[in-house]
Each structure stands twice: as structure tokens, then as C-alpha cells.
What we know:
Structural class: mainly alpha
Radius of gyration: 28 Å
Largest sheet: none
Distance between the termini: 67 Å
Number of strands: 0
Number of helices: 1
Amino acid sequence: MQHKKNPNEVSLPLDAVYTDESEFFRSVAELIQSARYGIEKQVNTAMVVTYFEIGRRIIEKEQQAKSALNMARRFCRDCPIT
């Protein structure tokens, strides 16, 4: 799966020279935030797919139940009473 770049992500070269500690920690914080953004997107996508599949299965089960009910009704209607 290809990583989509966060529009807010700032990428620095691996050999970047930091002028002070605050710049270093800022870059680390940005890296963590970028990872969080990517994870949030993946989780959201997985949840949407899961809920869609649950809904599909519920509808499929309801349709099977309706089909069985209609079959039973036809059987009772067509069955001669003796």
C-alpha cells in the first residue's frame, strides 16, 4: 500500500542539521503527528468497510428470512387439508 502524504507533513532530510534543540523536538513532534494522521485514516477506512459489510450481511439475512417465509406461505396455501 502506497503511503499518501499528509498535506501538513514537513519532511526533513535524514542528515538535517538542527540549529537548536527546540527545532529538533519540533521535527520529532511533526513526525509523530504525521504518523497519527496516517493511522487515523487507516482506522477510519477499516471502520467504514467493516460497517458496510455488517450492513450487507444484515440485509442478506433479512432477504433470506423473507424468502423462507414466502416459501412457507406458498406451501401452506398449496397444501391440501385432509
